[in-house]
Design a protein that fits this description.
Layout: H1 2-6, H2 10-32, E1 34-37, E2 44-47, H3 57-70, H4 75-97, H5 115-137, H6 146-167, E3 170-174, E4 177-183, H7 202-237
Antiparallel strand pairs: 1-2, 3-4
Length: 238
C-alpha cells in the first residue's frame, strides 16, 4: 500500500536495499562467528560455518542489488531487475514461511534474543518489498521474454549449487570408497528440502529436484503472466 501511494523511485529503493544488505551481512557474520581451537589445541581461531556463506539464492541477491543500483541502463540491468522481481518476491516469501535458521543455526527458543533471527526475517522482508517495488515503480521494462532469461539464470545458479554443496561437504572414505558424509551444505536447497522430509534414496532426490523445478516454472510464470497479457493486448490493438 505504501509503495502504491508514494511511488518511491526505484534507485532510492535500491539504495536503501544496499544499506540493508551491508547491515544484514555484518549482523549475520558477527552473530554466528565461533571461537574454536586448532587441532593441537594451542591456538584458537574465529570460524564461520560453511552454511553461512552467501551462496543461497536470497544471499546472491546482494550482488544483484548492488549491480542494479550502480549499473548503467541497458539490457543487462533490465534482465537483472526482471530476474530479481520474481525471485526476491517468491524466494524471500517462501523463506519467511519456512525459516531455515532453526535447527541448523539457532534454537526456536532464541527467536527473540538472538541477532540472527532479526537479521533473517528483516532481510527477507526487505527482499519481498524490493520484489514488489520493481514492477510498481514503472521505471524498468519487464517483458514476457524475461521469463525465459529468469528461468535460465535460476537454473544455472541451481546447477552451480550442486558443485558448491559437493565442494563444501565433508566426506568419509574407507579404502578409497565413499561411505558417508559427515557434513554438507544445502545452498539453493538442491540437496535437501527446507521442510523436515528425509530423502533416503537417490530416486527420491530426483523426484524432489523435478518438483522444485516444476514449481519454479509455474510460480515464476504466474509472476510474468500480467506482462504476457499486456503485450498480447498491445499486439491486438496494433
Amino acid at each position: 500500500m505504501w509503495l502504491r501511494s508514494r511511488r518511491p523511485p526505484l534507485d532510492w529503493v535500491l539504495s536503501v536495499a544496499c544499506g540493508g544488505c551491508v547491515l544484514s551481512e555484518v549482523t549475520k557474520v558477527f552473530s554466528v562467528m565461533q571461537w574454536v581451537p586448532s587441532s593441537d589445541g594451542e591456538t584458537w581461531y574465529p570460524y564461520l560455518e560453511l552454511q553461512h556463506l552467501p551462496l543461497h539464492l536470497c544471499s546472491i541477491q546482494i550482488v544483484m542489488i548492488f549491480y542494479a543500483r550502480f549499473a548503467r541502463e541497458g539490457r543487462m540491468r533490465e534482465a537483472v531487475l526482471a530476474f530479481m522481481y520474481p525471485t526476491c518476491l517468491l524466494g524471500a516469501f517462501l523463506a519467511l514461511l519456512m525459516p531455515s535458521i532453526y535447527g541448523s543455526s539457532i534454537a526456536v527458543s532464541k527467536s527473540f534474543t538472538h541477532p540472527l533471527a532479526y537479521q533473517y526475517f528483516l532481510y527477507h522482508t526487505m527482499l519481498v518489498v524490493l520484489g514488489v517495488s520493481i514492477p510498481l515503480s514503472g521505471q524498468t521494462t519487464i517483458r514476457a521474454r524475461h521469463y525465459f532469461s529468469t528461468l535460465a539464470l535460476l537454473g544455472g545458479l541451481a546447477f552451480a549449487s550442486l558443485y558448491f554443496n559437493a565442494m563444501f561437504a565433508v566426506p568419509t572414505y574407507e579404502n578409497g570408497e565413499l561411505v558417508r558424509v559427515e557434513y554438507v551444505t544445502n545452498f539453493m536447497f538442491t540437496y535437501q528440502p527446507p521442510l523436515s522430509i528425509a530423502l533416503t534414496e537417490l530416486w527420491q532426490w530426483y523426484v524432489y529436484v523435478a518438483v522444485i523445478a516444476v514449481l519454479a516454472v509455474v510460480l515464476i510464470g504466474c509472476c510474468y503472466l500480467p506482462f504476457w497479457r499486456r503485450e498480447r493486448q498491445a499486439k491486438k490493438i496494433a
